[in-house]
Amino acid sequence: MEAFLGTREELPTSGLGGFAEHGNLAGVRHVLLVLSGKGGVGKSTITAELALALRHAGRKVGILDVDLCGPSVPRMLGAQGRAVHQCDGGWVPVFLDRDRSICLMSVGFLLENPAEAVVWRGPKKSALIKQFVSDVAWGELDFLLVDTPPGTSDEHLSALEALRPHGPLGAVVVTTPQAVAVGDVRRELTFCRKTGLRVLGVVENMSGFVCPHCAECSHVFSSGGGKELAQHAGVPFLGSVPLDPQLTRSLEEGGDFIQDFPKSPAFPALTSIAQHILEGHALSPPGGSSPLGPCTV
Ligand code: ADP
Fold first, then answer.
1. Which residues, judged by CB distance below 6 Å to any ligand atom, belong to the binding site of ligand 1?
2. What range does the domain containing 180 cover?
3. How far does residue 92's CA lie from ligand 1's centre (Å)?
4. Would you state the pLDDT for residue 23?
5. Does residue 286 lie within any of the structural domains?
6. In a 3-state reduction of DSSP, which class is residue 242?
């Protein structure tokens, strides 16, 4: 399996500064924030794989990784160490394929050493996120998926503030099946309600393990928590993604899981979630609210 194509260019050495003053989201049709109550539930995984699934469904997709604590999307998509450079319109995102239908901008590209944690205080982080949102030259995109830090923080509010003027936003909320994770997600849904962010739906990740020999599914972390939560909150349930060693491997190798593993257990789950999102958006009136309805937590 091969990592995405791309040339390695010189890494930028300076910090942020000197960008275009105005936003670059005019050509972006839908912005989706991917949220989770806490780290490690697969938020970045779902962001990366949904982006791939939407791209393979013929859409132009961008990913904005503003997870300052752990910008892992570049590694997951084989783009670690790639350089971003500037054009008149701002930062040029890193394109992941030859036909330039999927691109990525990550805080990880701008850190001198991506392995080091960002230890800035809140206001500096928020300023970076705002600038980051407005200064990337995305061009025309069907979807921009935003991988946010876990939880609900100043950074989320900053991202929302910066993104909201550019059109309808939606949130995909990721949880694992256990009650503890589900409790964290309940707070995430409350955040969406309070900030007026429309919830496209809940994804239950790590939802059972399908034995590669007998195809039986063991519910390692219990099951059904995400669906119950979605029902209780009155938001759509988008689907369950099982634990899948081929997905782990693909993420480790920076490959294209959707292209490389169409027979794996996580494949139908991920493509069906992408389909739900496409159908939800196809029904949305331009610039209006979605028939999926608001979050009622
Ligand atoms: P988060 O962004 O919520 O912190 P990640 O997306 O980084 O979580 O996922 C944590 C780890 O779990 C990653 O190493 C990823 O490879 C693995 N992982 C996530 N979801 C799955 C899955 N459905 N099957 C197998 N491995 C997964």
1. 36, 39-45, 72, 205-206, 241, 243-244, 247-248, 251, 266
2. 24-281
3. 27
4. 58
5. no
6. strand
Neighbours of 59 (CB within 10 A): 20
Most confident of 72-76, 113-117, 151-155, 168-172: 72-76
Q: b vs e for 142-162, b when ≥16 Cβ sit within 10 Å of the residue's Cβ?
A: bbbbbbbbbbbbebbebbbeb
Q: Is the pLDDT of residue 266 over 90?
A: yes
In angstroms, rounded to a whole number, what is the distance separating the alpha carbons of residues 216 and 181?
A: 24
Tokens representing 63 are 């990913």
Cα–ligand 1 centroid distance for 76 (angstroms): 10
Domain of residue 99, CATH code: 3.40.50.300
Transcribe 194-216 into DSSP letters: HHTPEEEEEEEEEEEEE-TTT-P
Q: Are 170 and 201 in contact (CB under 8 A)?
A: no
Q: Which residues contact 264 (CB under 8 A, 6 or more apart)?
A: 244, 246, 247, 257
Can you tell me which atom of ligand 1 is nearest the CA of 205?
A: 23
- 276: its two tokens: 């739900």
- Domain count along the chain: 1
pTM summary value: 0.86
Q: Atom 9 (ligand 1): residue with closest C-alpha?
A: 42
Note whether 64 and 145 are within 8 A (CB). yes
Q: Considering only CA atoms, which residue is closest to atom 22 of ligand 1?
A: 243
Q: How far apart (Å, rounded) are the C-alpha atoms in residues 241 and 74? A: 21
∠ CA 100-65-115 to the nearest 5 degrees? 110
Taking the centre of ligand 1 as the mean of its atom positions, its distance from the CA of residue 167, in whole angstroms, is 30
Q: For residue 243, how far is its CA from the centre of ligand 1 (angstroms)?
A: 9
Distance CA 141, CA 131 (A): 19
